Amino acid sequence: MPLVMILDDRVTNRNIFAKLAASISDDVRVETHGDPASALAAIGAPLPDLVITDYKMPGMNGAEFVRHFRQIPGCEDVPVIAITVYEERSFRLAALEAGATDFLLSPVDHAEFLTRARNLLQMRRQALIIKGRAHDLERELQDSERSRQQLLRDSKERLAQVIDTVPACVSAFDRDGACIFLNSRAAARFDVDAHGAIGQRADALLGDEMGARSLSLDQMVFRSGVALPTFEEESAGQEGGEPEYWLTTKSPLRDGDGMIAAVLTSSLDITDRKKAERHLVHLAHHDALTGLPNRTFLQDRLRREIARARRGDRIFALLMLDIDRFKTVNDALGHHAGDALLCAVGERLGTHIRKKDVLARLGGDEFALLLSGIRNPQDALDRAEQILGALKQPFTIAGEDIVVGASIGVVLHPNDGDDAEDMLKKVDIAMYRAKAEGRNLYRAFDPAMMSSARGEITLEAELRRALANQEFELFYQPQIDLRTNRIVGAEALIRWRHPTRGLVRPLDFLPFAEETGLIIPINEWVIAQACSEARGWCAHGLPPLRVAVNLSPVQFRNRNMVALVDDILARTGLDPKRLELELTETILMHDADAVTIELRELRKRGVSVSIDDFGTGYSSLAYVKKFPVDRIKIDQSFVRNLTSDPNDAAIVRAIVNLGHSLGIDVIAEGVDSADQVEMLRAEGCEEAQGFLFAKPLPVEEFLALVQADAAVARSA
Ligand SMILES: Nc1nc2c(ncn2[C@@H]2O[C@@H]3COP(=O)(O)O[C@H]4[C@@H](O)[C@H](n5cnc6c(=O)[nH]c(N)nc65)O[C@@H]4COP(=O)(O)O[C@H]3[C@H]2O)c(=O)[nH]1
Fold this sequence. Notes:
alpha/beta, 4 domains, 26 helices, 27 strands, 47% helix, binds ligand C2E, EAL_sf, phosphoprotein, Diguanylate cyclase with PAS sensory domain, CheY-like_superfamily
């Protein structure tokens, strides 16, 4: 039953390590100690098979503890893992010299802890078997009546036979450094003949470096008379191949007089295990899609960076970034394109980091950058600016040029936090703020952001309450026929009359509603309310105006739109011809065939369909042919500079011509000047909507405007 001894002055660590060690196998026994002195005092039969000790402890550090431990009979070759936050060579050397077998860096990665501990326990078991066999042989040597010379020759042969059965390279060298035997594995490893090797020196057999190391360690055994603790060593691979790893034990071999005749070295090839261990550790720390470090890796490096920064006056920064419009690309071009975009973003970010920085993918479209050793806070902001610039350049994905951009949050250590979780939370808040403030920008964390971040947590609850308490209302923005100058329809635009914040605009809560799925009930309310109000307008003696409502991609994906619209039209009694659904290109591109079927059904009922924000999405202009639509809405970004930018004028002309060639009407949105109207009219654009005519208006004001318009029409 293997015994694992845990030594750590912190009770939390002790408990965690004890639990981990106990999970290695059912028969493992675990003993914990809080201070080195009591751990040393408690050592007796049975001896521990593995010791895991903290390095920094009050009273005695890890190196001193190991030194004392090694002096206890039987503990010379018990494997010891030292846990240290120090990566510096000097600490490692001190612990190695004192006899530690291996290291783990604090904070300890659980997967790494388990693999190391499991391997060392297994090695220990094998080492004990080898030791037992060597011991038997030694006894035979001592008991034998034959002459010492004869005895040595016989025993060498027997030793070779026994040792040949051991799954390790085993060799013995005498005091002069000459080989007295090699087992067959060692002979094969060193590419020599086992008999021909007898009498040769270690450096001739093992190569200069390994040979010299082996000889000097043998001398230590000759001098001390005790076995060396098991240690790991690395050797150059055969024929210049990958390096090989060994777990080596060296113990004295005594003759009949009790004199040390030779040193027995057994080396177990652990190369495959090392590789498997590294692979496992790699998998646990990397993202499968991009191959970049993952969140676990980042957290680990962040903790180390904090520990290191505490000891010096270093500052470092953590940047978290989220790809703007990633969801749109994913929805429009599919998951493969989304994956390709993430890999391309990862690669581009990779060209902007230095060797000591860490670039990680945290999941979804979120990446993080740990910038270590920056000189001042401005450095971090400059780097954020550079990254924004780099990500603004288009990516070519699936043959399309895609422009994305990013929102970046920045936190600094020690100013913004002194523990990893806290820093991650704050950088997330800063990034969220960058997103909320318009995307494609960076924001450094500011404590004032904490209160608004908490506000966002309650936003979901508030939106639910708003639905239940009917805090939403619809404003209407008139749509004008440019040929007659009459109001022919209106776009319904949602507003939230918040009990304390006043009137909230849609872009301040709709993106959040999209993320949480609350957009579905909200939009259902919008369609029902718009249909119900429009149905009532005729009672005011108004002409049968068209009413347009915006649909969200989420809503189209999750709902049977035909059934929903049928139900609302039946309930409100609105003539289907008066309802228009505004869709974005994203909705059309996603699952185009299914959307087309639904749109055909809706149009059969008389409902009309328009494409909103036309020209801003990914579809080529010709793509619109595929879809059953009645109207294209030219995005306001093209209308804004229509009279000053020839490119925008050309785009508007192309859209109008396209519409006409397909028999589709065109409406321009965001029209706010008479010059724009003139140009649109000259191009043949049928309708317009914008502040020039009216802003979105509360329903009563809108009705008053339409009544006035109708009066003008009557008097004309
Ligand atoms: N600068 C300028 N702006 C003009 C002008 N004319 C109209 N606008 C604004 O442009 C937006 C037009 O609506 P949209 O493109 O569908 O863009 C809408 C739409 O995408 C979304 N939205 C509004 N209501 C709903 C809704 O009920 N459901 C869904 N799914 N989305 C909605 O929110 C967006 C913003 O709505 P609003 O804030 O009401 O902003 C409106 C409107 O006030 C102009 O001449 N100049």
